[in-house]
Design goal:
It is a single chain. The protein contains 3 helices and no strands. It has a domain of 55 residues. It is an all-alpha fold. It is rod-shaped, with a radius of gyration of 21 Å.
Length: 86
């Protein structure tokens, strides 16, 4: 294997490492945004918005499958939401 081939393999390996790193950062950033949206929804009075935001957050956290425990956690979190004043 010549120097040129070694350089090509090194460049390809570095490119793969960079792509994996960027993908991981994007996933964690998306998860952070979903969590912030869920927490913000829990501060409001729109329970449907909080339910949808909670399901989206846990779906992303679990890999598109949410568990019964996740739904129970969302309901417990929603129990602490303020009620809309009439």
């Amino acid at each position: 294997m010549g120097l040129t081939e070694k350089m090509i393999w090194l460049a390809a390996g570095l490119l793969i490492i960079i792509l994996i790193s960027v993908s991981s950062l994007n996933k964690s950033d998306k998860l952070k945004q979903l969590k912030e949206k869920y927490e913000a929804a829990l501060q409001g009075t729109d329970r449907m918005e909080a339910w949808d935001a909670g399901r989206a957050y846990y779906r992303s956290l679990r890999g598109s499958e949410i568990t019964i425990e996740d739904e129970q956690t969302i309901m417990r979190d929603m129990a602490h939401m303020p009620f809309e004043e009439s």
